[in-house]
Inverse folding.
């Protein structure tokens, strides 16, 4: 069964560095999302993406964040200058039949 | 704004027993979807079950079923014949249905309930 995939599984970076998190959504899905989960807390919506543009973004998704679909398969989340508080699990999801299917997540650790 | 509340931070159950996880939500919308997601220690988010608000019949998926009470804004998950592999965090989630969009929208999650299944 098709799955959402994410790379890397774990990313360690220094504060102020740029990171790019990558996702490959399920191939026939049209809507894509990024969520994050700080350890021990609830899952929070970051951004939704459809037809090569952002559909909606949360207050968390400030100018340090950007998303892109550089080709027909990848969907990326870029954080330009990471902060300590960006340490979290980042999940990509894609939509089929009104249900969102999540990737395994990328654990981002900012030192 | 919509909110989702899971009032049970932790629960435990014996293997083969039945357990019910509670979820309430607040919305003024009439058309929406409700979900339960399971997050095992691997932290993968796994879709367990979905309920459409316009459907009166409660959704079921094998050992998992829901009790959807629209008027009370309640959406509980029942796990029958609990198995050790059911040990996980369980998140309730709400999605507002946007007309003519195909129903795609962001999920709003509750804080989760940590379920432990004991042998």
């Amino acid at each position: 069964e098709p799955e959402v995939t994410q790379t890397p599984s774990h990313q360690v970076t220094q504060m102020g560095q740029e990171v790019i998190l990558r996702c490959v959504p399920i191939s026939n899905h049209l809507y894509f999302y990024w969520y994050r989960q700080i350890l021990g807390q609830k899952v929070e919506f970051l951004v939704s993406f459809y037809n090569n543009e952002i559909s909606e973004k949360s207050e968390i998704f400030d100018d340090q964040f950007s998303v892109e679909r550089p080709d027909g398969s990848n969907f990326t989340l870029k954080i330009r200058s990471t902060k300590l508080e960006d340490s979290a699990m980042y999940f990509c999801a894609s939509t089929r039949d009104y249900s969102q299917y999540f990737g395994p997540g990328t654990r981002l650790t900012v030192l | 704004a919509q909110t989702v509340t899971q009032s049970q931070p932790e629960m435990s159950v014996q293997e083969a027993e039945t357990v019910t996880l509670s979820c309430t939500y607040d919305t003024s919308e009439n058309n929406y979807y409700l979900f339960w997601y399971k997050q095992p220690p691997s932290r993968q988010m796994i879709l367990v079950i979905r309920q459409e608000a316009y459907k009166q019949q409660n959704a079921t998926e094998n050992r998992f079923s829901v009790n959807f009470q629209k008027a009370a804004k309640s959406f509980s998950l029942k796990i029958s014949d609990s198995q050790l592999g059911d040990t996980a965090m369980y998140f309730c989630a709400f999605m507002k249905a946007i007309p003519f969009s195909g129903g795609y929208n962001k999920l709003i999650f509750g804080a989760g309930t940590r379920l432990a299944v004991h042998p």
Summary: Chain A has a mean pLDDT of 93. Chain A is about 0% helix and 55% strand.
